[in-house]
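Posting here for the record, re: zinc ion.
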Amino acid sequence: MQAAVYQGKENIKVQEWPAPALADGEVLVRVRYVGICGTDLITYSGKHPRVTPPRVLGHEIYGSVVEAKPPADAKWKKGQRVVIYPLISCGVCVPCQEGNTHVCEKLRVLGVDTDGGFAEYIQVVSEQLVEVPDTVSDEQAALVEPVSVAMHTVRRSSFRPGDTALVLGGGPIGNLIAQMLRASGARAVMVSEVKPFRGALAERLGFATVNPAQEDLREALQRCVGEPFADHVFEVTGVSAAYRDAVEACKVRGEIVFVGLPKTPPEVDIQRVVFKEIQTSSSRVYARQDFRAAIALLQRRAVDVVPLITDQLPLKDAEGAFQKMLGSDTSLKILLAP
Ligand SMILES: [Zn+2]
Ligand SMILES: [Zn+2]
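Prediction output follows.
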């Protein structure tokens, strides 16, 4: 089969790759769409500490069942539309024992620690598959993984209907968190974003926006939310300036939810955090139930993922897709179609 294989820093080759052989309980999936994510970009830049080449990347995978080996054949039939839950947990560490398998001490991810979805086929164990109903389109299904990240984030926060929120970062995850908050009954949601394309998209989807490089954040909040602070601040950028913004813009006794992954430890003014009695929370990937909840939300059109898809490219253009994502500010979610 054809696969886009990471060969080392800034080098992805589309080449012949051994097709997966199925063991008992495994399912072969024909990949229809695979999204390129920030994690894949970090790998492509040669900065992911765990990825060793050659590796087939990609963990945002939608496809259809080709074949299932017993006992998986009892549930999974040829042609069934599926998304893949890409986390693999050890099952024995304390977080796993307590049911928090997504924060397993030895967490492994498809497309990072094992081969992923930048290929025509992938084999997974039955438990990694989540069924996609016919009322969810192919494009929507391709975005289930990022929607699950947003779902998990909002579920991790103390957000309640009627609260206000500021989302720092208007990329795919920040945008989806904003949509999820609005769908959950937020009084007002503002998106802070420095890149014009991302800010304009958030605006097009009906959100108040601010460019914190050009306008004072608290003044913008006053203008759009009616108060110079937000009840909840979601930090989705990982950029050091945003941690200052988060503390500044958070209401006294409000909440900051950390989602972005800073490349180096950021400076956070803890004195301000203490003086304002700010609560903090954090969110990492998603649990299995977030996948099911994300699909349900997509099914009833509570979040709109299609405007986030800026490009759909064949697998053979994988390298170009990565360069496009790194080199331009006008690509948000690129889907590859193997
Ligand atoms: Zn992802
Ligand atoms: Zn574990």
